[in-house]
Description:
Layout: E1 5-13, H1 15-27, E2 36-42, E3 46-49, H2 55-58, H3 61-67, E4 71-73, E5 81-83, E6 87-95, H4 103-120, E7 125-128, E8 132-135, E9 138-139, E10 144-148, E11 151-159, H5 164-170, H6 176-189, H7 193-196, H8 202-217, E12 221-223, H9 228-240, H10 248-253, E13 259-262, E14 265-274, E15 278-287, E16 290-296, H11 314-325, E17 329-333
Parallel strand pairs: 1-2, 1-12, 3-4
Antiparallel strand pairs: 2-6, 3-5, 6-11, 7-8, 8-9, 10-11, 13-14, 14-15, 14-17, 15-16
Helix pairs in contact: 1-9, 4-8, 5-6
Amino acid sequence: xxxxxxxxxxxxxxxxxxxxxxxxxxxxxxxxxxxxxxxxxxxxxxxxxxxxxxxxxxxxxxxxxxxxxxxxxxxxxxxxxxxxxxxxxxxxxxxxxxxxxxxxxxxxxxxxxxxxxxxxxxxxxxxxxxxxxxxxxxxxxxxxxxxxxxxxxxxxxxxxxxxxxxxxxxxxxxxxxxxxxxxxxxxxxxxxxxxxxxxxxxxxxxxxxxxxxxxxxxxxxxxxxxxxxxxxxxxxxxxxxxxxxxxxxxxxxxxxxxxxxxxxxxxxxxxxxxxxxxxxxxxxxxxxxxxxxxxxxxxxxxxxxxxxxxxxxxxxxxxxxxxxxxxxxxxxxxxxxx
Length: 338
């Protein structure tokens, strides 16, 4: 592969366009189109759902309306994210033939560049769990990827700052304890460059990232522009991204899911029915293979707290056994089946 890679430095763009551009480039990809790297920043906040997520499962409708933040649904995987002007995006849209078939190898192939960029600035960085970039053991990027038509897509960002309060406020939470656990876990495990390297500016990070492309891919990288066909496709995708309706693929796998905060960090909940048909919730933070915290509503056994610091999956079985022994039915849950 010797053809030049096209670089699109789009600067600051509308939020919808920061998502639409890579969808449009992937949709219009064919054999004579160049592999492309996009670098841009959204000029307004928005929320973005992964392809396999349902808006009603992830976000609180009332909170969304109060916040007035638009929601877009991308056609690649990953979890729900909050995005705004304090994030620098990098997006790789390459022909499928030029990318490893294995998702793990594909992520490593593309994420090596942002990883080395962070390391260049003296940050202790690593790639964890296939597609998560960490600094000092904490998540510092939102990464997603997948295949659209003839293109392989990997997208990510550098978090210069993050609005923890807005993200935690719009999550759908079955009870206050769940939101409290999720908010605290978000602050503990999602890191920003403002926290670890406040002197860094977006333009210098962007310049270092771009400087590394050619050597990493062993190809020339040439700055270019969008074609008229691609520009038209971007406009079409603006409307497609706002379609949050369920697809056949989603419906076939629809089930309650835990909230992922970072690699190895999940917030679970269980809906419990007490004698007399009273409903109560237990909220659980799973962290690095152990139950880190439990919050149970009134009426649930206080002994549930004894499960903290115990390893999973044994702790899940013990938690459910304690509920059953107390005459409590677990109606639904997001932790694994025993």
